[in-house]
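[step 3/7] inverse_fold.run input=structure_tokens len=174
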């Protein structure tokens, strides 16, 4: 496995709409394994393929409780979730919670999202995937699927907050 470079704002790949994965092959599996390792070593809860420069519809996620139980971030177990061509097919209720992003390091903001979601896709083993979840996991699915659609969580900010973010964030990187 290899640690991948996480692309950060304003890298243009973050705004690309990811293409569907038509064939789950050895290259797809290698990408997923590398993304899991990268997510874990970066202390992230999820990662979308375009965040590592591969604009294909693939995300990896890990439940918060699994991260806490494992403790050893070097142990790549089977607890991470890999979803190919994920789609949110239902959502309920709304909540506001703080989010961060590996592509926007050290920036956090409160974002309104659905509290419960239903997600469909395909596992890396080519098995249809369907999951209903709430709370942190529901937020993570929405966040990562947004990445596949070229959407960043800063896009949900008011125009005033977004402009303040851009001024501070871009100024900080200089």
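[step 3/7] decode complete -> sequence:
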């Amino acid at each position: 496995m290899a640690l991948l470079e996480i692309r950060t704002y304003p890298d243009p790949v973050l705004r690309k709409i990811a293409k569907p994965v038509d064939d789950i092959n050895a290259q797809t599996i290698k990408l997923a394994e590398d993304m899991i390792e990268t997510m874990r070593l970066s202390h992230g809860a999820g990662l979308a393929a375009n965040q590592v420069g591969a604009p294909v519809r693939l995300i990896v996620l890990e439940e918060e409780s699994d991260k806490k139980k494992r403790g050893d971030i070097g142990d790549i177990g089977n607890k991470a979730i890999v979803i190919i061509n994920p789609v949110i097919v239902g959502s309920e209720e709304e909540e506001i919670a703080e989010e961060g992003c590996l592509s926007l390091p050290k920036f956090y903001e409160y974002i309104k999202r659905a509290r419960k979601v239903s997600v469909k896709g395909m596992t890396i083993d080519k098995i249809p995937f369907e999951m209903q979840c709430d709370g942190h996991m529901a937020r993570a699915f929405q966040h990562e699927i947004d990445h596949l659609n070229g959407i960043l969580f800063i896009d949900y900010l008011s125009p005033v907050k977004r402009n303040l973010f851009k001024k501070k964030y871009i100024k900080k990187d200089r």
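[step 4/7] annotate
Helices lie at 26-41, 64-70, 135-148, 159-173.
Confidence is low (pLDDT under 50) at residues 66-78.
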